[in-house]
Amino acid sequence: MSCLQSWPEPIVRVQSLAESGITAIPDLYIKPPSKRPSPPNTNNHRDADVNIPIIDLQNLLSDNRSLREATMRSISSACREWGFFQVVNHGVSHELMKRARDTWREFFSLPLEVKQEYSNKPSTYEGYGSRLGVEKGAILDWSDYYFLHYMPPQIRNHNKWPAVPTSCRKLIEEYSEETIKLCGILMKVLSLNLGLGEDQLLDAFGGEENIGACLRVNFYPKCPQPDLTLGLSEHSDPGGLTLLLPDENVAGLQVRKGENWVTVKPVPNAFIVNVGDQTQVLSNAIYKSVEHRVIVNSVEDRVSLALFYNPKSDLMIEPAKALVTNVRPALYSPMTFDEYRLYIRMKGPCGKAQVESLKSYE
């Protein structure tokens, strides 16, 4: 990993650029025309009311078998057809969700010299960052972020977590515990929906005590030329499952559906869930991770929190044996998550190039 010890160029904080009063963005944020967001008047008007599935989880624990199975079918359909869905009545305190957003918004409002104390390096990405990938001269995204590790417990480094606001470290613990618990429930449902044992996917990840989990808080500053750039370039998530707490008031996440990009409309007090590449591999592509990206706007900043639920980093991930048949051979060769995410850390967001490159059979 020695090649990842330092960034190839001086780091510029996007928030500082945005707050400097510039009226044109620097060239290194301008995307090629084919990668820019579509102007509003070119969007298909029939897609204006399309949204990813919204699933009420309250019946997952119901004694009524038909209600429970209907919810599971909805999740299965969303994983197969969209790779994304929103969940309500998920068991996480709405007050905790609000505090999480507010506290991190407060962090990003701190003076730059305070935030700089937590500047990250590409060796772990942990801390305050402004770019992904170490390719010199790469076109960058219009965002800053804070990345930290939470699971397994032995890799937590509280010194890497912000000491201000004073509530931040305690909140990270509380929020991470609750969202990891929800991810564990969803993993059991995904496993059962594949016809596997309830804990089979979770066990493939290393079990509850050994799973990997990390938090990425995204800050997307307002942008004077939002039609030329993206807050986050198109990509699929490299891990297992992502639980996103979006900004309720400002839409920005777009999900690829066929040839179109659907702008997700956040539902109050909902999480957005999406399938990651490792779950695509384990399911032998029955579930698919889906490309998504983030657009920015000229009026408002946005804050979102992504909890990544991942395999233990040194475990070999390959299609579940029960899902490999003569008709559907194993589509992917075994690889550890450590090996897999090194590609992302080198290249930055790059569509679905990584997971597609793993295919061992067509």
UniProtKB/TrEMBL annotation:
Gene3D superfamilies: B-lactam Antibiotic, Isopenicillin N Synthase, Chain (2.60.120.330). It comes from the Eukaryota. InterPro entries: DIOX_N (IPR026992), IPNS-like_FE2OG_OXY (IPR044861), IPNS-like_sf (IPR027443), Oxoglu/Fe-dep_dioxygenase_dom (IPR005123), Plant_2OG-oxidoreductases (IPR050295). The keyword Oxidoreductase applies. It catalyses: jasmonate + 2-oxoglutarate + O2 = (1R,2R)-12-hydroxyjasmonate + succinate + CO2. Residues 28-49 are annotated as: Disordered. One of its GO terms (molecular function) is metal ion binding. PROSITE patterns: FE2OG_OXY. Residues 210-311 form the Fe2OG dioxygenase domain. The keyword Iron applies. Belongs to the iron/ascorbate-dependent oxidoreductase family. This is Fe2OG dioxygenase domain-containing protein. It comes from Malus domestica.
